[in-house]
Write a structure and sequence with these properties.
The chain is mostly beta strands. The chain is built from six helices and 44 strands. The chain is about 5% helix and about 55% strand. The longest helix has 22 residues.
Length: about 750
């Protein structure tokens, strides 16, 4: 059966089956005890509307729901969304894959395929993403997850979809405060803890307010590093805060300021080497990882009567620094260069970026048969990236080398340690005009058309210096990529009643191309990559049944992805970008939320997805991944279930049981090449349990996460020390106290 016939048959069948129920269902009216059936207003279309009225695949988790499941970090909630796989690894570099649109489970060499935003401020800059902030769930209003390309309204990097965090804003109508702390214990680890606080203060009643949030979380390491002799080596500290200031001089105007700062410090890499056991790893030195993120934004919303004007400007500064153990290659460098280095060999990698963005748009205020939105945006990012190879005492080793001789070490390794380095200054720019218009052909049928006219440009200057260019001058390379195009969106929505909606959607996505420099690899690499092409076809259904106590969603989708941007690996473990092959992704996302009784909420989502290559993919130095191979970073099946029961007794005790399942996948496309060892991930079930009660203004909750202590592999990567595996956190139990005014 063709894809179009498959979608048409699915929608017609579901509509026929649900229409009798929908016709008799009344307006959704949940009881006050329901948590999962809460109506959530989202801004997925750059205007406020109920999540159930959006003609597209949008899910949202409210702050109340995040609290109910005990969410702390990204990993605690994002994978409960249909169509989403969370590939957890290093802090700041864990990635969300939406609808299988990925060819690697980690940081891609260029711009990623999932866009990240906070209050609509873009966080995914051109080129290699330096940091992906792990926004703490405390005092977050909601998290919106948009599945499928969002190129028309949100721009580059949203080929698979987008994640938009909405932080609570200052409220001038009331004073408010909250405190929260958690103490936990993870298997094979020390005590972990969190401390969080929020204060909301009106400065001028109903006019001006400020809201401040501070958070700190320590996740103690559960891995033992045999090389350094450190037990529980991979401690991770995440701290930061947010500041919101809102001024409403009149009923038609709101001016809001948001600042965010987050710092992450990892004492060692949070991945194991399987040859050292369940909780073992080995490196000659700690593989640290530190990140800093700073974001400031100013937003104006003004009701002009016929439309609402929104102006949004933002500045962001990000920094990240890794240390990788490269000691296993030391003998080869000593032999080739005539050195006698005995200290650990390492690679330092990272960089910093400064980004500026601005958006101006007008959105009609509705109320008629025609609705529209027009806007313009600009994003600019200046980045400095580095990759350095070094060892303590390297300069002296070059002085003693018969290939170089006395005095040469100070030239090759002027700081005494770094003897080969690759630096990149990169500037990326994106400018666009975008818009969307909807027309009601009848009161039940709405047609929407929109698109984005965009232009991207990346200018890169890379410098290689060290033994690889000695005795000549540093190698300087300048590259530039320019692209432009149009990203369209079309949808048709049929809504015969307030309780049933069916829609069809076509959309496209795009991202920046990525130039390559020579880098530190001993192997030649291509010049870079250009933007790939992705087309998404989907048909969806939303039904509200049983007097609003049962919500059903189903979406079938087909993705056509060509000229794919790839992150590939040289034989000496350096990354580079290239284009190649084509793929198709077929899937079905289904979810149900049911208030089974006045006290029991149940939510379940199931996604089946087949993400496969449509043609052979040749991978330099490794071989060919044949047609039909699975795309890396995706899984055929993902399931999430949550049940919340509230007892009608004193203190409102609540029991929450949660389950997640992820089928097996691969972490890189090399694993699809016959004869190459498979770097796998997934294939696990996780179960969590929470029991809480409320005592006045304080809620106390005891919890156990990963009850069965499953060693779920979230990502496998070939490193200098052998295979490295990211894991779901082992069994963790603890208690949380939450106080609110």
């Amino acid at each position: 059966m063709s894809n179009s016939r498959w979608y048409r048959t699915l929608i017609l069948s579901c509509t026929a089956a649900l229409a009798p129920l929908a016709a008799t269902a009344q307006e959704a009216a949940t009881t006050d005890t329901s948590i999962l059936l809460e109506e959530i207003i989202v801004t997925a279309t750059k205007r406020q509307q109920s999540v159930r009225d959006v003609s597209g695949s949008v899910s949202a988790v409210s702050g109340k729901q995040l609290e109910a499941i005990g969410a702390q970090s990204f990993a605690d909630y994002i994978q409960r969304t249909p169509g989403v796989v969370f590939n957890e690894f290093q802090p700041g570099t864990s990635h969300v894959v939406i609808r299988g649109v990925a060819t690697n489970s980690g940081n891609v060499q260029g711009q990623g395929t999932t866009g990240y935003y906070i209050n609509e401020v873009p966080l995914t800059e051109p080129g290699w993403t330096i940091v992906i902030p792990d926004i703490d769930a405390f005092d977050v209003d909601r998290v919106e997850v948009m599945r499928g390309p969002q190129g028309s309204l949100f721009g580059s990097a949203s080929m698979g979809g987008a994640v938009n965090y909405i932080a609570n804003k200052a409220d001038a109508s009331k004073e408010d405060a909250a405190l929260e702390t958690t103490v936990s214990r993870t298997r094979n680890a020390d005590i972990g803890w969190t401390g969080k606080a929020m204060l909301n203060m009106p400065l001028v009643e109903d006019k001006l307010a400020v809201r401040a949030v501070g958070t700190f979380r320590r996740d103690p390491g559960y891995l033992d590093n045999a090389g350094t002799g450190e037990k529980g080596s991979s401690d991770i500290d995440v701290g930061g805060g947010r500041l919101s200031v809102v001024w409403t001089p009149d009923d038609l105007t709101e001016l809001s300021w948001l600042s965010l700062y987050q710092k992450t410090a990892a004492d060692d890499a949070p991945y194991r080497n399987p040859t050292y056991g369940s909780f073992g790893r080995s490196s000659a030195l700690p593989e640290t990882n530190d990140t800093d993120v700073e974001i400031h934004s100013l937003r104006l919303d003004r009701d002009l009567g016929f439309a609402t004007l929104t102006a949004l400007g933002a500045y962001q500064k990000k920094n990240q620094g890794f240390v990788f153990d490269f000691t296993p290659y030391r003998a080869a460098y000593n032999a080739d260069l005539g050195l006698n280095i005995s200290n650990p060999l390492y690679v330092r990698s990272g960089g910093d970026s400064d980004g500026k963005s601005g958006e101006l748009r007008l959105a009609s205020n509705g109320g008629g048969a025609f609705e529209w939105l027009l806007g313009a945006m600009y994003f600019e990012s200046d980045k400095y990236l580095y990759e350095q190879l070094g060892a303590n005492g390297a300069a002296a080793a070059f002085d003693a080398s018969p290939n170089y001789g006395p005095g040469k070490g100070a030239i090759i390794a002027p700081d005494g340690s770094i003897f080969n380095a690759f630096y990149t200054d990169l500037k990326g720019e994106e400018s666009a005009l975008f818009g969307e218009a909807s027309y009601y052909l009848t009161p039940e049928i709405k047609f929407t058309a929109g698109g984005r006219l965009f232009k991207t440009e990346v200018t890169s200057t890379s410098t290689t210096i060290g033994f690889s260019t000695y005795p000549g001058n540093p190698l300087v390379e300048r590259t530039q990529t320019k692209e432009d195009g149009f990203s369209p969106k079309l949808s048709l929505t049929y809504k015969p009643s307030d309780t049933l909606m069916v829609y069809g959607l076509y959309s496209e996505g795009f991202r920046f191309g990525t130039p390559n420099g020579s880098g530190l690899s001993a192997f030649p690499i291509p010049s870079g990559s250009k933007s790939d092409s992705l087309k998404n076809y989907e048909a969806g259904l939303r039904a509200t049944l049983a007097d609003g106590q049962l919500l059903l969603d189903a979406t079938a989708f087909y993705v056509d992805w060509t000229d794919i941007q790839l992150r590939l690996l040289t034989p000496d473990n350096f990354n580079y970008a290239a284009n190649g092959a084509a793929a198709s992704i077929k899937g079905l996302e289904m979810s149900a939320t049911w208030q089974a009784t006045a006290n029991l909420d149940i939510q379940s989502s199931v996604t089946y997805m087949k993400a496969r290559l449509d043609e052979d993919l040749f991978i330099l130095w490794y071989g060919t991944a044949p047609k039909g191979s699975r795309l890396a970073g995706s899984s055929d099946w993902s399931i999430a279930n949550t049940a919340i029961y509230t007892f009608d007794v004193a203190y409102d005790p609540t029991v929450t049981v949660a389950h997640r399942y992820l089928s097996k996948g691969i972490s890189d496309m090399n694993s699809a090449v016959p004869g190459i060892a498979v770097n796998g991930q997934g294939g696990y079930n996780l179960f969590d349990l929470r029991v809480g009660a409320t005592f006045g203004t304080t809620t106390a909750t005891v919890f156990a996460n990963n009850i069965t202590d499953k060693r779920g592999v979230t990502r496998t990567v070939p490193e200098a020390n052998g295979l490295s595996q990211g894991l779901v956190r082992p069994r963790t139990y603890g208690v949380t106290l939450h106080w609110s005014m």
